[in-house]
Amino acid sequence: MQIVPFTEEHREPLLALSLRAWEPVFPLLEPAVPAFVYETFYPEGWRKRQFDDLSATLDTEPQNVDVALIDGLPVGWVCTRLHPEDTMGEVYVLAVDPPHQGKGVGAALMQHSLERARSNGMRMMMVETGDDPGHAPARRVYEGAGFERWPVARYFKDITPAAE
């Protein structure tokens, strides 16, 4: 596996694998939230909203995106945002194609994101996810990587060299 900076040729494969990655999440999310909340966020369906949101991320901050490749094909990606005012990095998007989940791709992307933030002087990392059953696998990954859960379901990790 190789992790490389995003290029435009990665765009469509990343969007497609992201929708596959979230496919099992949304059927569990919908019954876990009030109907009006789900309908407000996803009036045209979750696929459209995810596609639009992820497209915007790739289009507006390609410099923050890194792509995992296996045999030259995209299998996952991470978007790392930096918040210098808080000396905090943020794992904004982390997606791995389902056939490659559980094989270390997500962990490698997470480590790459941590290194990106650390090398830019950030002191801690944050990642947010849902508290619904569909996001339980994501919470396990983040907690397994050493992130600590806060009551608002934000995950933080001190990434200064002395803390590890």
Automatic annotation (TrEMBL):
PROSITE patterns: GNAT. Coiled coil: none annotated. Keywords: Acyltransferase, Transferase. SUPFAM superfamilies: Acyl-CoA N-acyltransferases (Nat). Residues 1-164 form the N-acetyltransferase domain. One of its GO terms (molecular function) is acyltransferase activity, transferring groups other than amino-acyl groups. CDD domains: NAT_SF (cd04301). InterPro entries: Acyl_CoA_acyltransferase, GNAT_dom, YpeA/RimI_acetyltransf. PANTHER family: ACETYLTRANSFERASE, ACETYLTRANSFERASE YPEA. This is GNAT family N-acetyltransferase.
